Amino acid sequence: MSMQIWLAYVVTVLVLMSTPGPSQLLMLSNSASHGFRRSLATAAGDLSANALQMLASGLGLAAIIAASGQALLVIKWLGVGYLIWLGLKMIHQANPKSMIAHSQRNFATLKTLWLQGFLTSAANPKAVVFFAALFPQFIQTDQAFWPQFLILSATYIVIDGLFLSAYGKTASWVTEKFKGSARAWIERSGGAMMIVAAILLSVKAV
């Protein structure tokens, strides 16, 4: 793969990620609620799902998944329902008295945070089709497929990880500046972001 093609791919991915989606909103929410370091588990879950989706596209499963409309609907609406439940739970549990000190916050387990990130990304199963459509635009037919595919996949994961980290760090920094009732409103905003993420998933075409 030439450097020129790789740079064109990087620019394309940056443009595609310029608008926050469900995964970015979830990262904002979890970082504000549980801290930046713990929210990295959410990013890891999201990137794990992305890696599996890329692998599926590389193995030629995109056409099979695209043809299974019923499976897409089930996966999609399970993810939507899960995010709405999480958002409502966060809003309900936001209590100024419980947010006086950072150490008093109830943290979700890293496994739970990872699972949230994974399910949010996996709830958009058409991502497999997206990767199957995106990657061929930058793969040179006169070179081996898998080395190029791995470069494109790794590049996407690194860029996505940097974006998620930037969102998480920003949310964590803002949250650390507030305490008490202001902190509770930030928690409620995080829950609202979760619900918005669910809405974004629900309006995606299936």
Protein model, in words:
The protein is mainly α and 206 residues long. The protein has one domain (40-97, 110-203). The protein is 77% helix and 0% strand. The chain has helices at 3-16, 22-34, 36-58, 62-67, 69-93, 110-122, 127-134, 145-176, 180-203. The longest helix is centred in the C-terminal third of the chain and has 32 residues, at 145-176. The chain is globular.
Summarize the entry for a quick read:
The chain is mainly alpha-helical.
Which characteristics define this entry?
206 residues; mainly alpha; 9 helices; 0% strand
Helix and strand sequence: HHHHHHHHH
Number of alpha- plus pi-helical segments: 9
Residue fraction in strands: under 5%
Q: How many angstroms separate the termini?
A: 33 Å
Helix content: over 70%
- Cα gyration radius (Å): 18 Å
Which SSEs are present, and which pair or pack?
Blueprint: H1 3-16, H2 22-34, H3 36-58, H4 62-67, H5 69-93, H6 110-122, H7 127-134, H8 145-176, H9 180-203
